[in-house]
Design brief:
66 residues; mainly alpha
Length: 66
């Protein structure tokens, strides 16, 4: 979960975002070392890609150690 995920500051990372319906391909998931999920409550279980990117990048910009 995003609120529990930790990385070392200065560590190089690549962020991959999937779309609302198809997500990220299995091929890309096999190459990933980690997977971050944004916690959500209610009946909707996906966010628009721009919203997802904004949430994750905001957590990084505000200095939180993801």
């Amino acid at each position: 979960m995003l609120d529990n995920y930790k990385i070392t500051l200065g560590e190089k990372i690549a962020l991959v975002f999937g779309n609302e319906v198809g997500g990220v391909s299995e091929e890309v998931m096999q190459m990933a070392n980690e997977c971050i999920e944004i916690p959500q409550w209610g009946s909707k279980h996906s966010l628009n890609i721009s919203v997802s990117m904004g949430v994750v990048l905001w957590e990084m910009v505000r200095g939180r150690q993801l």
